[in-house]
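README: folding subset

This subset contains proteins for which both the sequence and a predicted structure token string are available. Records are stored as plain text. Below is the entry for TonB-dependent receptor (73 residues), shown exactly as it appears on disk.
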Amino acid sequence: MTSVSGKTSNGFTYEGDYEHANSDRVTWTATYRRGGHFYGMRHGRVNELLGVPVAEVDTAVKDDIESTWTQSS
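--- output ---
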């Protein structure tokens, strides 16, 4: 499992983990906070990652975490 963290464009911080579900897919979970207070949790997956370098997988997961939170709140 790989850990990721960051800040969304709408001001929430997140901490998450992802793991490879198979050779071209990762699944992730993330917890969102603002000012140290819990605001929610989401999960998702990113597909079509066969042959993608690790740094780009991290970026794809972070982008999906951002998009999932900002589009749902």
